[in-house]
Amino acid sequence: MKKNKEIIWWIVLIGIIFLGVVPILLMLLSSFSNGWKWPEVFPHSFSLRAWQYIFTSTSKTLEGIGMSLKIALIVTLINLIFAIPAGDALGRYAFKGKKFIEGILFMPIVVPPIVVMMGMYKTFIRLDLTESIMGVVIAHMIATLPYMIRAIMISFNHLGFEWEEQAKMLGGGRFYRFFYVILPFLLPGIVAGSSLTILISLSQYIVTVLIGGGKIVTLPILMFPFINGNDQSIGAAYTVLFAIMAIFSLWIMDLFLKRYYEDKKIY
User: Which residue ranges make up each domain of the chain?
Assistant: First the structure.
């Protein structure tokens, strides 16, 4: 039995390495290649051309990274403002029509994205929200808010009312109860929802193209033409850069969570 578990563990480990690490290594290798065509096992020559290009002023890479992070941060903050009261209502209260409201809120996850985008695009044209940062932010919110609400709703569901009621009996006001009782319980859900929001927002391409109209330039906007066949080496370099940016964002979130619980001495 023990030997079988070890075999299964090694199979799972090899599968994770193959699916997760190998594609990244291939992309990294391709970004340093001077052309890698089928059926070559390895690139016939190597060059820094792709990395030199993406960091030139003409490539607008730094502008794209800045705009991507700016939009992701704004979307995350606004999502939190809406998701905390929504998660509280759906996670701790029972009321008529609760399932119907949940279905409406989580509809963007179920409905095919192309259907949502076309209807959204027509509406945004009428509201004069196209080709603006605000329009792109709202479009990203539609795609990410359900994940934030779901993560915080689960935290509220596990919290219940007991701790808050005890704090109220001890004289704690509304703001005191929120910051010292509710927020510590919500923090894992907030971090999980924020992580999903940032990752989904950073990766949005079609929504940003439609609503931004080419004027709002994010990293996926710069990356996609090269991935689509214009220059595979530059596309691979952009992909590696995007992966580094996403991993760095998740690392910051994880570091914040650990530091918070270390300060509270409950981690």
Answer: 61-216
Q: In the Cβ-directed half-sphere of 71, how many Cα atoms lie within 13 Å?
A: 31
Q: How far is CA 237 from CA 5, 51, 70, 72, 259, in A?
A: 39, 6, 22, 22, 33
The pLDDT of residue 192 is above 90: no
Q: What is the pLDDT of residue 267?
A: 42
For residue 107 the two structure tokens come to: 């509809």
Query: What is the pLDDT at residue 266?
Result: 46
The CA-atom distances, in angstroms, between 33 and each of 26, 37, 104, 228 are 10, 10, 48, 17
- What does the DSSP 8-state code read for residue 37? -
Quote the mean pLDDT of the chain. 82
For the domain covering 61-216, report its CATH number: 1.10.3720.10
CA–CA separation, 244 and 59 (whole Å): 18
Please state, as a whole number, how many other Cβ atoms lie within 10 Å of the Cβ of residue 65.
Answer: 17
Q: How far apart are CA 133 and CA 138, in angstroms?
A: 9
Tell me what pLDDT residue 16 has.
Answer: 77
Which pLDDT tens digit goes with each residue over 116-163? 777 788 888 888 888 889 999 998 998 899 999 988 988 888 777 777
Question: What's the rounded Cα separation, in Å, for the pair 121 and 117?
Answer: 6
Burial 218-247 (b: 16+ CB within 10 A, else e): bbbbbbeebbeeebbbbbbbbbbbbeebbe
> Count of CB atoms within 10 A of residue 72's CB?
26
Taken as a whole, the chain contains a residue count of 267
> E strand or H helix at 200, and its extent?
helix 183-203
Residues 6+ apart with CB under 8 A from 129: 135, 138, 211
The whole model's pTM is what? 0.82
